[in-house]
Amino acid sequence: MQLTPENASKIKATWLGHACFLAELPSSTVGVRGPRILFDPVFSDRCSPSQFVRLPPPCALEDVPKIDAIAQPL
Fold first, then answer.
1. What's the predicted TM-score (pTM) here?
2. What is the annotated signal peptide range for this record (predicted)?
């Protein structure tokens, strides 16, 4: 993915459903992407205590770009 020059210094966040976000941080090196952090990932049909609430994952795990770090709540 190539960022346009006017967006190269900005943080990009993509919501992936529930509380999951993919954050892409800017890089100080021209032509090199910044780190990507996946926050609170959920890629299953169920993430609640209820067995009746089921939602499809927001996307296939294979569709997520290379991740540098994963942050999960304690």
1. 0.73
2. none
